[in-house]
Design a protein that fits this description.
- The complex is a heterotrimer of chains A (270), B (342) and C (557).
- Chain A has eleven helices and two strands.
- Chain A has 270 residues and is mainly alpha-helical.
- Chain A has two domains: 2-230, Cytochrome c-like domain (Cytochrome Bc1 Complex, Chain D, domain 2); 235-270, no CATH class.
- In chain A, helix 7 (152-162) packs across helix 10 (214-230).
- Chain A is globular.
- Chain B has 342 residues and is an alpha+beta fold.
- Among the domains of chain B are: 38-111; 184-341, Rieske [2Fe-2S] iron-sulphur domain (Rieske Iron-sulfur Protein, 3-layer Sandwich).
- Helix content of chain B is 32%, strand content 12%.
- A four-stranded antiparallel β-sheet of chain B has the order 2-3-4-5. In chain B, strands 6-7-8-9 form a four-stranded antiparallel β-sheet, with no helix packed on it.
- In chain B, helix 2 packs antiparallel against helix 3.
- The longest helix of chain B is centred in the N-terminal third of the chain and has 32 residues, at 80-111.
- Chain B is extended, with a radius of gyration of 38 Å.
- Chain C is mainly α and 557 residues long.
- In chain C, the strands form five sheets. A two-stranded antiparallel sheet of chain C has the order 1-4.
- Classes of the chains: A mainly alpha (270), B alpha+beta (342), C mainly alpha (557).
- The interface between B and C is large, with 107 and 140 residues.
- Strand 1 (118-121) of chain B pairs antiparallel with strand 4 (253-258) of chain C.
């Protein structure tokens, strides 16, 4: 680790970073993406993946999402147990199933993250099946997830404009209406972060590739991983929740210690 | 503990008064006798206390040294973890330096300095004798000044003194060169101004806005504007797309949306925070500051929270190249209400 | 012409003596030493919060001076060139950039920033706790009413200092706070928009506000605070400190330790202790990570946007107010085409107005209701003034409901409840909370007073059971020694003061109101035990086995 940090301070490192930055920014404008053009390398699924995926789907998902993923019939209040999945793409399946959100424990607007119920192979098969039903966002490629190519400063700017209002400026999570919430992003893999942005799970808006380009998304992921790795320079971050936790600390521990000292100070010595 | 209503009415139990006609109070027993401390009685305890105080002062010295080690020896390279370590070392060094002295002095006072309680008499805030002397002086001063006998002087003095401080307030007029509330009525938006992405300013095609998207928008040219942040504080817009059947459009606003793509001011009408949270399935916009909630299907009507009127809508259309453009400025002032808003 | 100076008869022998003598003969230090050198101050831990406030203020001055050497309050645009990677090249104001430099590129800068901000939080907290102590023990009564007013002013100045201070770095969090304040100012009828433009130097955000807040924060507000502290301490010295009831303590004396050496040592040592505590906190806990929030821009906002804790109650009130109630909006256009924004004005002005209004005028309210114009130097134990304690708790509960409302979204995420439900509950508690708080507190105070009576009359339950010769089992009670007893009986329980006619024989409306308040507050009261009652208790039927401790170990605590 030490050698790496010293290499970062090498005088040529700044030039290398500058060159990379120029390449990325130049590349960004050259490759003005359209909405759903998968920058990702197209993963090819075998026919067997799709078949296995269909079996898994019928057994585990069709009760809510319908056979053929056409969606459940609409209920009395216009609610649906599970929406149609035609066109959501492999990325959506990889995110929802990979983070354990699907299968949902109970229907509702907020799908809670929980331990994944399927193995990676099964998740891939489910993704293959759903992807075969209609074109949609694909699973991001290795190169678009390579955060060393990303620019954390630009990613930070994009994050603050598009994401911080729900997920908090330090990605610690935040409240939505009626009991929904945007979760903390700590410990979430680069792949899942990217997929969530491009598919817009549950109440999160869809950030298609025209809204935030793939390189922009990579910058955001790079930003998130940078702040996660660097830690808090001032000490314990108290959850990165801001003045509320700071005030609580002062009123409980801070005043508590002060009062303890005042009692000691005014007590008669033995 | 049983019934102990001595000398008091038994009835409600909430009142316990002294017995009838008894108004005497207990005699003050005086200061309790002094109890000697260990260090007072036992010379070994005294020496031990002395040593403890000295050790505490030495801990303070160590703390000071720790501070300098932290300052000079923990090099500030560019990593955050050494910064965290340096902050910790400087802080704990300071802490020991201070606590060593403080706890040492207090321990010294508690164990070794005399702890006999002393009673000191209070003095009256004012004695009658002083009051009379002061009263005489004041009336002499007033009569010598002559202010009571000379109402002309008194009245003109009063008038002058009341008016004299006014320039100090008046001179503050130029805290702001312009004081015209009308600037709040207009933003940078106008017919033909393209909607562009925040923050990089690239224009947006209608086809790029899909159902469920939320684009953060600034007017074209904002990044080069002279008063960028001031314009931005009125011009930021949220762009979303709904199914046209889900939109309830009021009369006169039929051409304000483009195929279900709608644009609304992002400045909350409560006190001005950005209303940035878009819940794509409930079609609600939530402001994180005070939780005002707006319903996108009802032209951003307020459905919860302290905001009192809906978010202003920006009428949009597309230009010949398919880019989204505004067709006019907002039809009402954006942001929080103010007196002249009307 | 020649002054009649007799040759100085006093010739000092040591060098220290010569220096002191020099000063003494120039400024008359002897009389000062004579007056203050052995002045007695009472020693109780609850008296130390004022000291905590004073010491944290000193820490603020010291750490603040360091920060002014490096902070640049300019709002000119710049691009970041410092060492913090995630903000490299980002456009920001010079003020924000200089704060980043202090945090990342100046050794000790981050520590000093954290020390400064943590002490600010502790400063306002200790001022508040000190004020609560003074309130609940009745130390604001004559002759200290003016000192109470000075203290309330200090609280407001502390809030101003904190608010202007945390807005200086021009980060996203405090910038949105300024935006909210601007929105509140704009809502003021007639003058709101003009005030807003004057303060910000034009349209929001402008380029003037940080510089102007800087002047307030480092010059005007600290100067006013220092002036108020000087007046405050001067009055404490003139009035001498109050003391709790106890043996040897009367309305005409002060019992404690002399300034020199004991009290000065303890108070002086305590300064270092407070400094050390805040240093430990600043060494270990991060505060206001401006690098996470980013520079202020009117477009982004962070989830969990709250002001520092002491401004929280205003933010909470703003959140609780409904904008539309049952189809009726609280903002409407009145004659002449002017907009009245009650949805903003009511929560911003009314609760704070009521709280501070009652706070400032409470000594006079209490004097009016109790008709008690005597000097008081002995404090009330809070249980012995149920009316005041209950009213104080009601105020505290009201404040805390609004304070909690400011973190409604964090309550929702942490306890997995709906944000809207939290708001509904707190809206209900806003009205019900203080009432319930008042009622419960008063009952608790009266119950504690009755318990004290029991202890005085029958002594402490020792838990030892004895069987009497005739077969009865009783519990042995140990009567209090005279010192402990005195502490429990040395108080006055004010009685109801019914309305009386004035000089013309009429009972005015205010007098009737006062009479009603007096009855409401003092109807239920518990009086202290009198010697006659204690006699009666001892001469009671039971031949209680009583124990007395040997005299030598009698204490007053």
């Amino acid at each position: 680790m030490k050698a790496l940090s010293q290499k970062r301070r090498h005088p040529l490192a700044a030039i290398a970073l500058l060159l990379m930055g120029l390449l990325v920014t130049g590349g960004l404008y050259a490759v003005a993406g359209t909405v759903n053009e998968a920058q990702a390398a197209t993963t090819t699924y075998s026919a067997q993946d799709i078949q296995e995926g269909e079996k898994l789907f019928v057994a585990n998902c069709a009760t809510c999402h319908g056979i053929g993923a056409v969606g459940a019939p609409e209920g009395a209040h216009g609610n649906q147990a599970g929406p149609s999945l035609i066109g959501v793409g492999a990325a959506a399946v990889d995110f929802q199933v990979g983070t354990g959100r699907m299968p949902m424990q109970m229907t509702g607007p907020q799908a809670q993250k929980k331990p994944a119920q399927f193995t990676e192979e099964q998740t891939t098969q489910l993704a293959a099946y759903v992807a075969s039903l209609g074109a949609g966002p694909e699973i991001p490629s290795e190169e678009i997830l390579d955060t060393s190519q990303g620019n954390p400063a630009e990613g930070g700017e994009l994050f603050r404009v598009n994401c911080a209002m729900c997920h908090n400026a330090a990605a610690a999570g935040g409240a939505l209406t009626r009991g929904k919430f945007a979760p903390s992003l700590a410990g979430v893999s680069e792949e899942h972060i990217y997929e969530a942005m491009v598919t817009g799970p549950q109440n999160m808006p869809v950030f298609n590739d025209a809204n935030i380009t793939p390189e922009g998304k990579r910058d955001i992921v790079a930003f998130l991983k940078t702040i996660e790795a660097q830690g808090a320079p001032g000490g314990f971050a108290l959850g990165s929740l801001g003045p509320v936790s700071e005030g609580l600390l002062i009123w409980t521990a801070g005043l508590g210690v002060v009062i303890a000292f005042t009692i000691w100070l005014t007590q008669r010595s033995s | 503990m049983g019934d102990h209503s001595h000398g008091g009415p038994k009835s409600s139990g909430t009142v316990a008064t002294a017995g009838q006609g008894e108004v005497e109070k207990f005699q003050d027993p005086g200061l309790p006798p002094h109890r000697p401390r260990l260090a007072d009685k036992d010379p070994r305890a005294e020496k031990r206390a002395e040593r403890q105080v000295a050790i505490l002062f030495v801990i303070s010295v160590i703390g000071t040294l720790l501070f300098f080690v932290g300052y000079f020896a923990i090099r500030l390279d560019e990593t955050i973890s050494t910064l965290r370590l340096q902050n910790f070392t400087l802080g704990m060094g300071t802490a020991f330096a201070m606590l060593g002295i403080g706890v040492g002095i207090v321990h010294w006072a508690k164990t070794l300095m005399p702890d006999h309680e002393i009673a000191e008499e209070r003095h009256a805030v004012r004695t009658e004798e002083d009051r009379q002397i002061a009263e005489t002086m004041v009336s002499e001063i007033i009569s010598e000044s002559g202010i009571k006998r000379r109402p002309l002087i008194r009245n003109t003095l009063l008038g002058a003194m009341i008016l004299a401080p006014l320039p100090a307030i008046g001179i503050l007029r130029d805290l702001s060169k312009d004081l015209n509330p009308d600037v709040l009525r207009h933003s940078m938006w106008d017919a033909g101004v393209r909607l562009t992405r925040d923050p990089d300013g690239t224009p947006i095609r209608a086809s790029e806005v899909t159902i469920g998207s939320a684009f953060h928008v600034i007017p074209e040219g904002l990044n080069e504007a002279e008063h960028k942040l001031e314009e931005k504080a009125k011009a930021v817009v949220l762009l979303m797309r709904l199914n046209p059947e889900d939109l309830q459009v009021s009369p006169g606003r039929e051409d304000w949306n483009y195929n279900g793509i709608v644009a609304y001011s992002k400045i909350c009408t409560h006190v001005g925070c950005p209303v940035a949270l878009y819940e794509q399935q409930t079609h609600h916009l939530l402001c994180p500051c005070h939780q005002s909630t707006f319903d996108l299907t009802q032209e951003c009507k307020v459905i919860f929270g302290p905001a009192s009127h809906a978010l202003p809508q920006l009428p949009i259309s597309v230009d010949s190249e398919g880019y989204l453009v505004a067709t006019s400025d907002f039809h009402e002032p954006v942001g929080p209400s103010y007196w002249e808003r009307g | 012409m020649s002054a009649s100076t007799s040759p100085d008869t006093y010739q000092p022998k040591t060098s220290v003596g010569r220096i002191s003598n020099f000063i003494d003969t120039r400024v008359g230090a002897s009389s000062i030493v004579k007056e203050f050198g052995r002045k007695v101050f009472p020693d109780h831990w609850s008296f130390m919060f004022g000291e905590v406030a004073l010491y944290t203020f000193v820490i603020l001055l010291l750490s603040g001076t360091f920060l002014t050497l490096f902070f640049d309050p300019s709002m000119a645009e710049t691009h970041y060139t410092g060492s913090y990677v995630p903000l490299k090249g980002v456009e920001m104001s010079v003020a924000y950039a200089s704060t980043l430099d202090i945090s990342f590129d100046i050794r000790g800068g981050l520590f000093m920033r954290q020390l400064h901000h943590w002490s600010a939080l502790l400063f306002v907290a200790s001022v508040s706790v000190h004020m609560l102590r003074v309130f609940f023990t009745g130390a604001f009564r004559r002759p200290r009413e003016l000192n109470w007013v000075v203290g309330c002013t200090l609280l407001i100045l502390a809030l101003a200092a904190g608010f202007t201070g945390y807005s200086l770095p021009d980060d996203l969090l405090s910038g949105n706070g300024l935006r909210i304040i601007d929105g509140v100012i704009k809502a003021i009828p007639l003058i709101g928009t003009y005030l807003s433009m004057l303060i910000f130097g034009g349209e929001f955000p402008g380029t003037a506000i940080v510089g102007r807040l800087y002047v307030m924060h480092i010059l005007v507000v600290p100067a006013l605070i220092l002036l108020m502290i000087a007046i405050h301490l001067f009055m404490v010295v003139v009035h001498k400190h109050t003391q709790y009831p106890g043996p040897g303590r009367t309305e005409n004396n002060v019992v404690g330790f002399p300034v020199g050496p004991v009290y000065a040592a303890k108070a002086g040592g305590f300064f270092f202790i407070v400094f050390g505590i805040v240093a430990v906190i600043a060494a270990n806990f991060q505060i206001l990570p401006i690098w996470d929030y980013g520079p202020y821009d009117p477009s982004p906002v962070s989830a969990g946007t709250q002001p520092d804790w002491y401004i929280g109650f205003v933010d909470g009130a703003l959140r609780l107010m409904p904008g539309v109630l049952g189809g009726f909006p609280f903002e409407y256009v009145i004659f002449g085409g002017y907009t009245l924004s009650l949805n903003v004005l009511l929560p911003a002005l009314v609760p704070a107005g009521i709280l501070f209004g009652l706070m400032f005028t409470w000594p006079w309210i209490e004097r009016w209701v109790t008709k008690d114009n005597r000097e008081h130097h002995i404090l009330d134990r809070p249980r012995n003034a149920p009316f005041r304690t209950a009213t104080g708790v009601a105020g505290v509960v009201w404040y805390c409901v609004m304070w909690a409302a400011a973190s409604s979204d964090l309550i929702a995420t942490h306890f997995h409840v709906s944000l809207n439900d939290v708001t509904y509950w707190l809206r209900a508690l806003f009205f019900i909370g203080p009432i319930v708080g008042f009622m419960v507190t008063r009952r608790i105070c009266l119950a504690l007073q009755r318990k004290d009576r029991e202890i005085v009359l029958h002594g402490r339950e020792t838990g030892r059971i004895v069987r009497l010769p005739h077969g009865e089992f009783i519990e042995v009670h140990e009567p209090l020694n005279e010192y402990k007893l005195h502490r429990l009986v040395d108080f006055e329980s004010p009685a109801v003061q019914p309305a009386v006619p004035d000089a013309n024989g009429r009972i005015t409306r205010t007098e009737k109101l006062r009479g009603r308040l007096s009855r409401f507050f003092f109807e239920d009261r518990v009086a202290p035990v009198t010697p006659a009652e204690l006699e009666a208790a001892h001469g009671h039927g039971h031949a209680e086995v009583e124990e007395t401790k040997p005299k030598a170990e009698v204490t007053s605590r």
